[in-house]
Amino acid sequence: MKLEIAAISKNEGFARSAVAAFALELNPSLTELSDIKTAVSEAVTNSVVHAYKHKDDHRRIVIECHTERMDEGGVLHIQITDFGVGILDIEKAVMPFYTTLADEERSGMGFTIMQTFMDEFSVESEGGKGTIIRMQKLITGIAAPTYTDCERDREEVNA
Ligand SMILES: Nc1ncnc2c1ncn2[C@@H]1O[C@H](COP(=O)(O)OP(=O)(O)OP(=O)(O)O)[C@@H](O)[C@H]1O
Ligand SMILES: [Mg+2]
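Above: the input record for the complex with adenosine-5'-triphosphate. Below: its predicted structure, written as tokens.
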């Protein structure tokens, strides 16, 4: 999947729902799905809030996803790219509580959240060129019980 959206805050909800919908083919649990949505939300919000500083910037975000299937479940790969100001000191930026927008009530926890909720996480960035966030989530793929399973269990209990 490749999705190009405007880097504006009202697209954040769409972006995370689109990635969650794409992940469904791996049969994720609700917790895994919620982890993915949270991480995507943080990455997209960063591009919206930090990447584009000028009024006439061509504000855009490209989200690319692919899945690696395994016997059960698989791995979801997500790449989120912006073409904004970039991050000069990545090591500093990913530290918990580091923010350049403290006066706008940012807590500096976005990267920490992405790292915590996903299995792999990396940042590539170049000043003036933009930022690429790569993340992976391992999906266990243990199917949630279907309605039919529940019905059968109930019939067995009632028998
Ligand atoms: N896409 C980006 N482009 C430019 N700078 C970025 C980008 N993403 C993050 N940064 C820089 O890295 C810092 C840390 O990001 P992080 O998401 O951890 O915290 P935050 O966005 O400041 O606060 P929070 O996510 O808790 O609201 C930001 O303050 C910003 O300076
Ligand atoms: Mg953030």
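Notes for the reader.
The longest strand covers residues 60-69.
Residues 42, 45-46, 110 surround magnesium ion (ligand 2) (CB under 6 Å).
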